[in-house]
Design brief:
Elements lengths: L4 E5 L6 H13 L7 E5 L5 H7 L6 E2 L18 H6 L4 E4 L2 H6 L4 H13 L3 E6 L3 H5 L3 H13 L10 E5 L13 H18 L2 H6 L2 E4 L4 H8 L6 E4 L6 H8 L3
Parallel strand pairs: 1-2, 1-8, 2-3, 4-5, 5-6, 6-7, 7-8
Helix pairs in contact: 1-11, 5-7, 10-11
The structure holds phosphoenolpyruvate.
Length: 249
């Protein structure tokens, strides 16, 4: 049976003390069952988060990484650096990285390959812009993004891939895809994976939904058969809200 996952992307929020406070508040919420829970603090706080969450089932993941192992790439971090502080999973392709840091599908293909080569899990984000949906190009846009970044991977790499469909128009806007829109797209994505790889891989890959998931809408979205959890931004910064979303699975 495929995994259920709820991951919180803290983006560029929380200083050292605030990171500790949020982690303490999450730990105080107690345990959860039947779902993998991950949090992505900013890179400077990863090591501290790994240490403070070492006695908890919450996994610490990265928000980004460079494709090279090391070298003259000022300001960047690599898969081996993440692993050296106990981080074995990374978000790649977030729409903010694509929009503000010019991450192309080609660069993402390299990043994914590099992460997988280092045996890291990848939470791969993709999704259409508002104008793509309005012009009914959303299926084509999603297919292109997946093709360019993921479809040259070997079959074996899929054990390390988690997909996160995040329509850009729903990220941080308060507007969510309806549960039906999410299900329609997730079923389409699973079909693409089956066509390009095989049924078994498609059946086992977790496909998360991201875009203004809140305690009030999580249960309905997560109830859809091809939605295997969520990637949460804003609501992940509040322990009560994040935990309520975790419990909605
Ligand atoms: C995100 O940034 O991945 C995200 C889903 O943000 P939000 O939940 O705030 O829309």
């Amino acid at each position: 049976m495929r995994k259920k996952i709820v991951a919180g992307n803290w983006k560029m929020n929380n200083n050292k003390a605030e990171t500790d406070q949020l982690i303490a508040a999450l730990k105080a919420k107690g345990s959860f069952t039947g779902v993998e829970v991950k949090v992505a603090p900013t890179s400077i706080h990863l090591a501290q988060a790994v240490e403070t969450l070492s006695d908890s089932a919450i996994e610490v993941i990265g928000q980004n990484m460079h494709q090279a192992t090391n070298g003259a790439y000022t300001g960047e971090i690599s898969a081996v650096m993440l692993q050296s502080v106990g981080v074995n999973s990374v978000i790649l392709g977030h729409s903010e990285r694509r929009a503000y840091f010019n991450e192309t599908d080609e660069a993402l293909e390299e990043k994914v390959a590099s992460a997988v080569k280092q045996d890291m899990e990848v939470v791969f984000c993709f999704g259409e812009e508002l104008e793509d949906r309005q012009s009914e190009q959303h299926f084509q846009v999603v297919e292109d993004q997946l093709h360019k970044a993921l479809f040259s991977l070997p079959h074996t790499a899929w054990e390390k891939i988690v997909l996160a469909y995040e329509p850009v128009w729903a990220i941080g806007t308060g507007e969510t895809a309806s549960p039906e829109q999410a299900q329609e797209m997730h079923a389409f994505i699973r079909g693409l994976v089956a066509q390009n790889f095989d049924e078994n891989i498609a059946e086992n890959v977790a496909i998360l939904y991201g875009g203004s998931v809140k305690p009030a809408n999580a249960q309905e979205i997560f109830s859809k058969p091809d939605v295997d959890g969520g990637l949460i931004g804003g609501a992940a910064l509040n322990a009560d809200d994040f935990f309520a979303i975790v419990q909605s699975i």
